[in-house]
Design brief:
It is built from 7 helices and 7 strands; from the N terminus they run αββαββααβαββαα. The protein has 144 residues and is an alpha/beta fold. Strands 1-7-6-5 form a 4-stranded mixed beta sheet. The longest helix has 12 residues.
């Protein structure tokens, strides 16, 4: 059985909720990533911040990324998966919630991240096609 722990990128790092978006952008650059899990004061997942969130949700809105915190950008219920979860469960979680990156947790601690490129290396073409179709599916305002 292939698990989330088998396919994840190890060494993922949190951005504390109190850190500013300019610091988050610097950390993304240093790590070569486009998303960071956001942690609360107890190192619990409280969201995910993407480079797009910084640009569209802060800069394009005329806000100063040196004054807006990662925690202020955290919206909704963060999704994650246990390191021991089967790859089928990973696919289901990502498809069900239309997400492209999934934090991996072990013993209540962040141990890695799974991205769509990780999936592409470990699943068949049919599974990847179904994933792509479900995650990138967009509905129009009328629901189509």
């Amino acid at each position: 059985m292939t698990t989330a722990g088998d396919i994840m990128h190890r060494g993922a790092q949190w951005i504390p909720a109190h850190e500013t978006l300019d610091r988050a952008a610097q950390l993304m650059r240093e790590l070569g990533v486009g998303a960071l899990p956001i942690s609360d004061e107890n190192e619990r997942l409280c969201g995910i911040l993407t480079d797009r969130d910084i640009v569209v949700g802060c800069v394009a809105m005329g806000h100063d990324p040196a004054k807006v915190t990662a925690g202020e950008m955290a919206k909704g219920t963060p999704r994650w998966i246990e390191a021991s979860a089967d790859i089928g469960d990973v696919l289901h979680e990502m498809q069900e919630h239309q997400i492209r990156r999934l934090p991996v947790i072990e013993n209540k601690r962040l141990v890695g991240m799974i991205s769509e490129s990780d999936l592409a290396e470990h699943v068949g073409e049919d599974q990847m096609a179904a994933f792509t179709e479900s995650v990138y599916a967009r509905t129009t305002p009328s629901g189509h």
